[in-house]
Amino acid sequence: MDYKSYFDIPDNITYLNTPGNGLMPRAHHAWRRVWEMEFFDVTGDIRDQQPAFIAQVKREFGALFNCSTEQVYLTPNFSFAMYTLLDGLPSGLKYAILEEDYPSLNFPVISRQLDYVKIKVGHQVEEHIQYTIRNQHIDVLLLSVVQYINGLMIDLNFIKKLKAEFPDLIIIGDATQYLGTEPLNFKDSGFDAIGGSGYKWMMAGFGNGYMMVSDQLQAILYQKAQAGPRPHEAMWSSKSILDTFFEPGHQDTLSHGTLLRSLNFMQTHGLDHIQTYLIELRAYAYGQFDERGWLLPEIRGRNVRSSLVNLQIDPKNYDLLLANGIKCFPRGTGIRIGLHVYNTQQDVDKLIEVIEKINR
Ligand SMILES: Cc1ncc(COP(=O)(O)O)c(C=O)c1O
């Protein structure tokens, strides 16, 4: 499938910076221009239909990732959703977080002075997690599905098994570097909550985020507030108590509407087909990178591979890569790249050609 034809990428640019921010299909840009005009057209009335519009985005989100409309909250970004979730959990819980995970996951746990342990991330991260959960009486596990620096992807079958072994463990995931690359069935995933920002692999631009929360977890969030009265005001009459925490105030229909365009794109093309395309592209890329010794040791031997790769080439090469049209980013000990539907084997070849030219 020629997914690239849906995007406007000039010939002299090799766009590999999806882990930073993803591209939007051309049709998204066209929709945003029209929406902006129609939305603020004085003679029109779509400004008055914001709640119905947001409800539609939730329905389509739920349909794609198998969660009910009541289980998904739409937020401005991942961090807002994550902080809201964390602040709603009962006190006295013990947390496990991963070393060097994204700051919006780890820092709120640290700054709120919650009781936590840090799990080492390495080649055998799942074993480390299992050992910690078995031995340290952990109540809540927080992790990113794909680690933002080294690209390590947690085995999602492991999450299902972990949940089966510890049904009371609350597992909260960050899907920002993952959702949009393959199908996800929330109800079956083992996660009690999983959320993210839409501007990377969901290709939906800034200003939109999502958090799916299971019924069991919803029942224990903001318990005192949930035991109290619902809002009496007419304008909030359809809001649940949890809506008033996750979705207070008016939401931006341009941002969430862009997320809806992405949901439609993924529905039309099929996340299963997108997954197949990316598996093939990754197999090619990882093979080429491995031959050249560019993969991190903790990534090399793993069967589960993400679309985010930290290439072990000197980050000092960043400016030269940019000068050659390679959009990427220095992170950790290397240069971070991402491979999404608008990337091809030619992009991988071009990247290798430029790195080898620079290092000659
Ligand atoms: C793992 C991960 N989670 C979340 C985010 C983004 O969260 P936010 O948009 O709230 O900053 C990023 C962005 O780099 C990320 O890498």
UniProtKB/TrEMBL annotation:
Chain ranges of the Aminotransferase class V domain: 117-351
Name of the protein in question: Selenocysteine lyase/cysteine desulfurase
Keywords recorded for this protein, A-Z: Lyase, Pyridoxal phosphate
Coiled coil location: none
Pfam families xref list: Aminotran_5 (PF00266)
One annotated GO molecular function: lyase activity
Transmembrane stretches, start-end: none
